[in-house]
């Protein structure tokens, strides 16, 4: 018994963490030094203090990576409690969690009171990592940067949800993957500002850090434009609404990744500029495709890229680059002689339409790079038959291996490319379920998928894991009226939770799927 007492003292846990047995000590520190003394000589002992079992790991989504258990009552918010910070840069995180837990925000303070939640900056390493210590009736959350501290507050919020208690002990946590995304197609289906903001709050609580917005396609162009107002669809978001969305996302440590897909998927732009429509040798229009042999085509897209770089201040950008229909015919050079001629002018006698298309992608990359953005493009925009290579700093957003001529992920990884996982086998929620798509389930993602499963159901070799930057669950609205906003929110609820669990920790989850689903329902 004496050894057990000494072990508890070393743990450093607070008031009243063990009970005496047979007159063996009151819990004072001096008792450890009296282990060998005669029991008859001991003074009368006070009533034993309350005994606490060893704490259990927090139950959160995503699960924390490490928890050191301890004995103690844990922590729950109480009337009169406060949130304080050690750095004024954490005011936003402090005010948010204080409001969520019904506590007062005390600002920057150095004193300590029972019931406190203290947020601080410190340490080194992954800026999204944090340590949360629950001890002596207080909580301390510390990280190298404000992002990690924010994620610590998300863990605390989930722990005490519905009157629960944050367990005694120390959590050390960080994500396995730096990019954890959700992509939303607002071009085909106009989602409301309120719906998008609700998703941002949900994503923030789940520790996602990206929201992709696909806002231009054949069906519509959904954000107000000052450079080209003629292309904007009637049902659209104003720049003021977008700024609210961007600001809310930033407060949740989520950055918006905008996408103006080109040179395909530009039907809404072409509708206002029919002279830029790509036509084949017979004069037939090619759906969604802009004529990249015309300098005016590059100018209008660059105008838009420059304009929206000011609206979306994040560091990342999706260039699109997929499904240019000029490349799906048997002989692009014969079908589109104007493209073939432009390719020869640009790249010599052997230049072809694939070269010209890759050159287009690189040109748009130059425009975005000037705004100090990191760029990605869909994997089918990296063309096999092109002698011109996409710029080395364009990352691969790998979504499918089903397209004709699609290369396996290892082709890109072995060439040193960094890859984002958008695997359409698991992560594509396509409204109306066209082209053999079925709505993905959380169960299948949770039980089968990992970030290394980039194409189909097979994982790439472990040696490439470091080049896989993360992944993204995606909602595409091919049949916009197939589901309402509320149906989409309900349908993606469990897939979002399963996806982020695997991006935060790609190892085998500790909970079974029924247990995970029960926890998700408990947390709301």
TrEMBL record:
What family is this?
Belongs to the glycosyl hydrolase 20 family.
Q: Does the keyword Hydrolase apply?
A: yes
Domain named Beta-hexosaminidase bacterial type N-terminal: residues: 58-173
- Report what the protein is called: Beta-N-acetylglucosaminidase
Q: Keywords for this entry?
A: Glycosidase, Hydrolase
Q: By its UniProt entry, which Pfam families does this protein fall under? A: Glyco_hydro_20, Glyco_hydro_20b
| InterPro entries per UniProt | Beta_hexosaminidase_sua/sub, GH, GH20_Enzymes, Glyco_hydro_20_cat, Hex-like_dom2, HEX_bac_N
Print the organism lineage.
Bacteria, Bacillati, Actinomycetota, Actinomycetes, Kitasatosporales
User: Which terms under GO biological process does the entry name?
Assistant: carbohydrate metabolic process
Task: State the active site.
Answer: 323 (proton donor)
Please list where the region (Disordered) is annotated. 20-87
From the UniProt record, which GO molecular function terms apply?
Answer: beta-N-acetylhexosaminidase activity
Q: Where is the composition biased (Gly residues)?
A: 21-31
Which residue ranges does the record assign to the Glycoside hydrolase family 20 catalytic domain? 180-485
Specify whether Hydrolase is a keyword of the entry: yes
Source organism, top-level taxon: Bacteria
Which PANTHER family does this entry report, sorted A to Z? BETA-N-ACETYLHEXOSAMINIDASE, PUTATIVE (AFU_ORTHOLOGUE AFUA_2G00640)-RELATED
């Amino acid at each position: 018994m004496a050894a057990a007492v000494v072990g508890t003292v070393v743990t450093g846990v607070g008031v009243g963490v063990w009970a005496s047995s047979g007159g063996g000590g009151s819990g004072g520190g001096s008792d450890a030094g009296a282990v060998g003394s005669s029991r008859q000589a001991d003074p009368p002992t006070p009533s034993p203090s309350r005994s606490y079992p060893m704490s259990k790991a927090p139950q959160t989504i995503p699960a924390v990576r490490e928890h050191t258990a301890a004995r103690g009552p844990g922590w729950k918010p109480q009337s009169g409690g406060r949130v304080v910070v050690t750095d004024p840069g954490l005011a936003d995180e402090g005010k948010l969690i204080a409001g969520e837990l019904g506590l007062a925000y005390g600002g920057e303070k150095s004193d300590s009171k029972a019931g406190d939640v203290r947020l601080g900056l410190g340490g080194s390493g992954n800026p999204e990592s944090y340590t949360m210590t629950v001890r002596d009736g207080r909580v301390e959350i510390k990280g190298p940067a404000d992002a990690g501290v924010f994620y610590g507050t998300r863990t605390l919020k989930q722990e005490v949800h519905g009157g629960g208690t944050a367990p005694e002990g120390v959590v050390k946590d960080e994500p396995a993957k730096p990019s954890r995304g959700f992509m939303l197609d607002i071009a085909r289906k106009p989602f409301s500002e309120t719906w998008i903001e609700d998703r941002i709050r949900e994503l923030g609580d789940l520790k996602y850090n990206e929201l992709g917005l696909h806002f231009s396609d054949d069906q519509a162009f959904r954000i107000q434009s000052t450079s080209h107002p003629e292309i904007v669809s009637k049902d659209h978001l104003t720049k003021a609404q977008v700024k609210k969305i961007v600001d809310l996302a930033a407060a949740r440590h989520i950055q918006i990744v905008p996408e103006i897909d080109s040179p395909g998927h530009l039907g809404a732009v072409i509708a206002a500029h029919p002279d830029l429509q790509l036509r084949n040798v017979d004069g037939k229009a090619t759906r969604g495709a802009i004529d990249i042999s015309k300098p005016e085509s590059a100018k209008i897209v660059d105008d838009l890229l420059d304009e929206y770089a000011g609206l979306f201040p994040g560091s990342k950008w999706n260039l699109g680059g997929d499904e240019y229909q000029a490349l799906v015919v048997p002989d692009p050079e014969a079908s589109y002689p104007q493209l073939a001629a432009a390719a020869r002018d640009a790249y010599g006698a052997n230049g072809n339409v694939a070269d010209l298309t890759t050159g287009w992608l690189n040109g748009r990359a130059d425009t975005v790079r000037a705004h100090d953005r990191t760029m990605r493009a869909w994997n089918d925009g990296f063309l096999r038959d092109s002698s011109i290579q996409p710029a080395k700093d364009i990352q691969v957003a790998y979504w499918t291996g089903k397209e004709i001529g699609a290369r396996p992920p290892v082709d890109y990884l072995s060439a040193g490319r960094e890859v984002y996982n958008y695997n359409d086998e698991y992560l594509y929620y396509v409204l109306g379920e066209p082209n053999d798509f079925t709505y993905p389930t959380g169960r299948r993602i949770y039980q089968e998928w990992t970030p290394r499963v980039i194409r189909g159901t097979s994982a790439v070799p472990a040696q490439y894991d470091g080049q896989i930057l993360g992944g993204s669950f995606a909602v595409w609205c091919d049949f916009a009226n197939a589901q309402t906003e509320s149906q989409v929110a309900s349908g993606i609820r469990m897939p979002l939770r399963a996806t982020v669990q695997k991006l935060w920790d790609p190892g085998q989850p500790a909970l079974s799927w029924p247990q995970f689903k029960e926890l998700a329902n408990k947390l709301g």
